[in-house]
Amino acid sequence: MKPVSIRQLWYLTQVGKEQTAGTYAEKLAEKGFVTIAYDASYQGESGGEPRQLENPYIRTEDVSAVIDYLTTLSYVDNSRIGAMGICAGAGYTANAAIQDRRIKAIGTVSAVNIGSMFRNGWENNVKSIDALPYVDAGSNARTSDISSGEYATMPLAPMKESDAPNEELRQAWEYYHTPRAQYPTAPGYATLRSLNQIITYDAYHMAEVYLTQPIQIVAGSQAGSKWMSDDLYDRASSQDKRYHIVEGANHMDLYDGKVYVAEAISVLAPFFEETL
Question: What start-end ranges are recorded for coiled-coil regions in this protein (predicted)?
Answer without folding.
Answer: none
